[in-house]
Amino acid sequence: MAETRKLYIKTYGCQMNVYDSERMAEALGGSGYVQTDRADDADMILLNTCHIREKAAEKVYSELGRLKGLKAAKPDLKIGVAGCVAQAEGEEILRRQPMVDLVVGPQAYHRLPDMAARLDAGQTALDTDFPEEDKFERLAERPKAARGPTAFLTVQEGCDKFCAFCVVPYTRGAEVSRPAARVLDEARDLVARGVREITLLGQNVNAYHGAGPEGDAWSLARLIRALGDIEGLARIRYTTSHPNDMTDDLIVAHGEVEQLMPYLHLPVQSGSDRVLKAMNRKHDAASYLRLIERIRAARPDILMSGDFIVGFPGETDADFEDTLSLVRAVGYGQCYSFKYSARPGTPAAERAEVAEEVKAERLARLQALLTEQQRAIQDAMVGRVVPVLFEKPGRLAGQMVGKSPYLHAVHATAEGLAPGDIRDVRIVESAPNSLGGVLAGQ
Ligand code: 5AD
Ligand code: SF4
Would you say the pTM of this structure is higher than 0.70? Predict the structure, then answer.
C-alpha cells in the first residue's frame, strides 16, 4: 500500500468537469491519495478548469498566484492544472507559474497515476495529448466509492459542430461516443452503489452514436431505452443537446420512456436568423420553434431550458429583439445567458465586438424576461403533487431536499426519509430558487 496523502480538487465549469473530477480522484486513489475538502490540508491541489467564457486562463493564473503561499509553507505540496485551460494553455502554464507540477488535458486523465509517479520522483508532468487508448476503459479499472442517489455519466465527448464562438471543438476535440455496453456496465455499477438518477453527459450528447453489441451504432434514444430496463434506475436525464441532433426516435422516447424526466436543455443561443448564421449554428429560429412544438406534442409537460449569448459580433438591436421574441414564444423554465466573450482561436474572435455597455444592457433585459418566465413556471407548481427524489438533509431539522421531475429543488419536512427515497410531494410554496412541499397524504 502506498502511504495516504490528501487530494483537494477544485472544479470549475460544467457537469462534465464534475464527472471528470470524480474520475481523477479515483485514478489518484491508486497512488495513495484520498480526497479532502480543505485546500490548506492537501498534499496535492488540482484545479479542474473551464475555458468556455471570459478570461478563463487569467482566472486560473490568479488562482495559482493565490496558492503560492501554501506552496511556500509546504514545499512538498503538488499543484496541478487539469481541464480545458490545461489543454488550451499547455506548457505556457509551466512557463508562467513554475511552481506548477502537473498539467493534464481532459483526454489524458487515465495517465494520472503515471504522472503522479513522476511527481514523486521530483519531476514535473505535462500531458495534453489526444491519445488513442480508451481513457474510460483505463479509468474504470480503479476501485470506486459508495455514492449518493444521483450521478453523472459521460457517454460522449467533444464536438464537431464548430459554432463560431466556442472553444469546445478545440479543447475537448472531435466527437467520440463510448460503446453502449460500457455505458450500461457503468450505469449498472452506479445503481448497485445506490444511484437512482443518472444524467448522461456529453458536449453534444444527443449526437451520441456509440457502438452497440452487434457493432451497429446506437442512438441516444436506444441507449436511454436500454438504461430504462435497469432495475432500480428511477430517473434518466441528459445534457447538453444541439437542436439539429434532436432526432425523431429521441422525441418519441420522451413520450414513452417512463424514467426519462420531462426536462430538456436545448440551447439556441440567439433568436435572430442572421446571428444564428454568423454563429454557424446550422439552424434557424423557426426550425427551433417547430422542434419544440414536436417535443411538446410528445411530452406536453416538458420543462424547456436553454443557453443564450448576447452581443455576438454584429448583433443589432433588431437581432436582439428577435431573441426576446423567441424567448416569449418558447417559455423557458430555466435558462443560462451570457455576454459574448471572444475565445482565442475561434472564428468569431477575429470579428469586431459589440460595445460592452450594449452587451450589459441586453443581458440585463434578457435575464429579466427569463427570470420572469422561470418564476411563473415555478409558481405554477404550487398545488401540484409531484414525485421528489430526495438527495440530502435540508437546512432545517427534519428537512430533506431533492428534485422534482422538472429539476426544481424541493424541500419537505418529514420523519424517516432517507437519501434515495422517491415520494409524492404536494407543493405548497415557491421561493426564488426552490419549492417547499409536504408529503402527499400527510
Ligand atoms: N461567449 C459567451 N458564451 C459562450 N458560450 C460558449 N462559448 C461562449 C462564448 N465565447 C455559452 C453558450 C454555450 C454555453 C455552455 O456557454 O451559450 O451553450
Ligand atoms: Fe460548442 Fe455546443 Fe456549438 Fe459544439 S454545439 S461548438 S459544444 S456551442
Answer: yes
